[in-house]
Amino acid sequence: MKKVLVVSEFIDPDQNSTGYFWYKIIQKLAQSDGVEQLSVIAPYSGDREEIQKKFCSNIGFLLFLHASYDKNNLFKRLLGQLQQTFGFFKILLKNLAKDKVVVSGTNPLFLLVLLAFLRVFIPFKWYLLVHDVFPENLVPAGILKKNSVLFKIMNFIFNRIYSRADHLIVIGRDMKNLMRQKTGSDNITVIPNWVDFTEIEVREKQQSSIISSLGWNENIVFQFFGNMGRVQGISNLLGAINLINNPSAKFLFIGGGNDAQLVKEFAEEENNKNKVAYIGELAAQQRSLGLSSCDIAIVTLAEGMLGLGVPSKAYFTMAADRPILAIMEEDAEVANMVKEHNIGWICEPNDPVRLASLIDEICKTKLNKVSNSPRQILQDHYHQDKLLQSFADIVES
How many domains does the chain contain in total? Predict the structure, then answer.
């Protein structure tokens, strides 16, 4: 029987995909026979009691006020994450002990540093869920250059930080290969992302009020849903849209992030007004509406992101039973999933000419090459219950 501390920046399932995954993990651990005591350390915003009501009653909450900051401003983001990490530090200092098991993620960045530092003095068990790989993910984001002195220093430090964890849980096979190179450890388990498919309603595109308002019922609609960040390769996608010849292709963007303004301005250009639409972010309660407002979902990563991230939007898309156009390196986790189960198409990143040609071909063949139901593949191979049990087994072992 173990005393477990879950340490996470996000725990609210309505906040973002990270909050959704951690909510599911916390609920599973709370129901596990091998967990004697479960406490959650996290920042909160809004109504603290309302957040706690979403969880099992046997969970202890050690919450502190969320530091608000502009995530799209690098300097403000760093300061905000430092402030957030100090909040974690104050609570961890009072609650860490050698008989505790810590389960944490990779955000905020400085939390990793803090836990590795504390482990020098307090020999607690540490299970680390890796969603982000530092500092490698800062290279495709355009923040660091791989041959710079700063990158080499950070890489040396973070390789040792990741090595301090007793067990690494990664979300893709490509990520496992990279983490093995960074740490030299074999204590690495792949547990892909998951979605409770019962929470996503399957709807026909023609039922979508968004599609009806755009007048795109008879068109082939490609959709980008989610964070438009520095590593999503948005510029490559926009460049390809300018080269597409098939008039039936339409493009819907839903979400926010660093490149959202770029997408908004692109959609407002005179040549794109009848071809591209940007509608901003949707509330979590409208997720099924958004996911169903297309024929094909676009899941994209910038060049150089192999092993560094697995877009969770791919699994939500599968729950909505939509095929995937994966724009990423061929050995990336989502690209492998698309190939193995024949649920879409793959295009290498940073090649707008090739991408435009593929989209024209998809429109011409009218989706005939997709033979399997993405939702059925999700149920058969990425079932939430099975993957959450795998996570609990690692913590309990």
Answer: 2
